[in-house]
């Protein structure tokens, strides 16, 4: 079965944290679907890039996906954390033993969903104090994998995060081939 990852998009998302993992995963054969958490499929990024989502979160059948991804961005994370449907989505993926992934400030949403108590995580440096009380261990590593939870630091680690996730989903060989094709380090 093809791996499918659901990207949750909220107004204010950090563009590079969404676009780089999207590009890497799709090049590696992972089906990525974009879901707007709003009632409008058009979602505006933190720096003005507007993306049309494939669907609204309210319309998505979560059972079709192997994992969920939450990009960061200050305003984007505020919007993600304010919606109970996002917290419930995260919890449902954990309950189904599926991948839960987040970058930058988005691990705050995972903390609010109550899923980090036994996990090692990382996040954007300024959010450490908000996340540390909710997790087992906090790390300053650029990408942290703990079971089926994958977290990363920020825009500068988005490519590394994308390759790590691709390796976990499709294997080291596929990741290496995609990296070579992109002339990435």
Automatic annotation (TrEMBL):
Gene3D superfamilies, per database record: 3.40.50.880
DJ-1/PfpI domain residues: 4-167
CDD domains noted in UniProt: GATase1_DJ-1 (cd03135)
Family classification: Belongs to the peptidase C56 family.
Protein name: 4-methyl-5(B-hydroxyethyl)-thiazole monophosphate biosynthesis
Organism placement in taxonomy: Bacteria, Pseudomonadati, Fibrobacterota, Fibrobacteria, Fibrobacterales
């Amino acid at each position: 079965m093809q791996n499918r990852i659901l990207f949750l998009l909220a107004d204010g998302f950090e563009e590079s944290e969404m676009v780089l993992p999207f590009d890497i995963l799709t090049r590696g054969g992972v089906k990525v679907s974009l879901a707007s958490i709003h009632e409008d499929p058009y979602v505006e990024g933190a720096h003005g890039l507007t993306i049309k989502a494939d669907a609204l979160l309210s319309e998505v059948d979560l059972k079709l996906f192997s994992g969920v991804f939450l990009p960061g961005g200050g305003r984007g994370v505020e919007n993600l954390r304010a919606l109970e449907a996002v917290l419930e989505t995260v919890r449902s993926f954990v309950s189904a033993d599926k991948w839960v992934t987040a970058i930058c400030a988005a691990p705050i949403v995972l903390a609010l969903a109550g899923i980090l108590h036994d996990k090692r995580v990382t996040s954007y440096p300024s959010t450490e104090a908000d996340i540390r009380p909710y997790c087992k261990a906090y790390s300053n590593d650029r990408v942290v994998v703990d079971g089926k939870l994958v977290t990363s630091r920020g825009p500068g680690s988005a490519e590394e995060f994308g390759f790590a996730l691709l390796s976990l989903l499709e294997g080291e060989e596929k990741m290496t081939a995609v990296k070579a094709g992109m002339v990435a380090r």
